[in-house]
Design a protein that fits this description.
By secondary structure, the chain is α/β, with parallel strands linked by helices. It folds into two domains: about 220 residues, Phosphoenolpyruvate-binding domains (TIM Barrel); about 45 residues, no CATH class. The chain contains twelve helices and ten strands. Helix 3 runs parallel beside helix 4 and helix 11 crosses helix 12.
Length: about 280
């Protein structure tokens, strides 16, 4: 894998039959654009999409935008066709979005085949079934090419019969973000579907960011600025983190106080992580 520093706060998803939407993602400033060969392409047109979409990966993003392809599940006939096609592309995607992942073995399969040919290929696994959620800790650490987990809240809620409200998905969100944190990778929340409910989007973003998620998927360009703001430290947060590190550097005991609040090793760890994120986002 490469050592480049990239952001993965937002992923705009389009059908693989619509490569012209690439310019929309660029204009929106999304971190990742995903062209979907799975649920975003009707079965009878998957072969057509497989022939249509490669042209978009030949284009120069002209910036930090990552170009991903969502393939069909690796063990299905269409998934095998997708992987065989990508293996032969001279200009592969930056990453693959892998749907309905339920085991570490499925990640191993892709890593040992496609990633052996295209060595810079990133993998993002979608956790969207009860079995996938149960095995999420094993999945998260399956391969070094796996950089992120995405909670597929729609498929998951449809399978278990829940709604998509906060309380119904809190357990799933918690498992995904903890597994990602344990593996040292990132966690992306599922899309917020109502483009008109700006207040609802912002509230949900604040909650998932507070949980430890680092990004959110989207189908709407207008959501991208809110998503980026939620996962980018503010100037006030950056300044506070710096003051925490300064206070800790002057501490000769092992804990001290800043503005009346405790500063210890755990607080310092969080401050360092925030500053690393701020540097990655370009606001440090």
């Amino acid at each position: 894998m490469g050592t480049r520093q990239v952001n993965r706060r937002s992923a705009m998803i389009f059908s693989a039959l619509m490569p012209e939407r690439y310019d929309d993602a660029v204009a929106a400033g999304a971190d990742i654009v995903v062209f979907d060969l799975e649920d975003g392409t009707v079965p009878e047109r998957k072969a057509e999409a497989r022939e249509t979409v490669p042209a978009v990966f030949q284009r120069d993003a002209g910036g930090p935008l990552l170009k991903y392809l969502r393939i069909n599940h690796p063990s299905t006939p269409d998934g095998l066709r997708d992987m065989a096609a990508v293996m032969d592309w001279e200009n592969p995607p930056d990453g693959l979005l892998l749907p309905k992942i339920e085991s570490a073995a499925e990640i191993h399969q892709v890593a040992k085949t496609l990633c052996a040919v295209h060595r810079e290929l990133e993998l993002m696994a979608i956790i969207e079934s009860p079995r996938g959620l149960e095995n999420v800790h094993h999945i998260a650490g399956a391969a070094p090419q796996l950089v992120m987990l995405l909670l597929g809240s729609d498929d998951l809620s449809g399978t278990i019969g829940s709604d998509r409200a906060w309380d119904a998905l809190a357990y799933a969100r918690g498992r995904v973000v903890v597994a990602a944190g344990d593996a040292g990778i990132e966690a992306m929340d599922g899309a917020f579907y109502d483009p008109e409910d700006e207040a609802g989007l912002i509230e949900e973003l604040q909650r998932v960011a507070a949980m430890g998620f680092t990004g959110k998927a989207s189908y709407h360009a207008g959501q991208i600025p809110h998503i980026h703001a939620a996962f980018t430290p503010s100037a006030e947060e950056v300044e506070e983190a710096r003051r925490i590190l300064q206070a800790a550097a002057a501490d000769t005991v092992g804990n001290t106080r800043l503005d009346g609040r405790m500063v210890n090793a755990a607080i310092v760890k969080r401050a360092r992580r925030l500053l690393a994120t701020a540097e990655r986002r370009g606001v440090a």
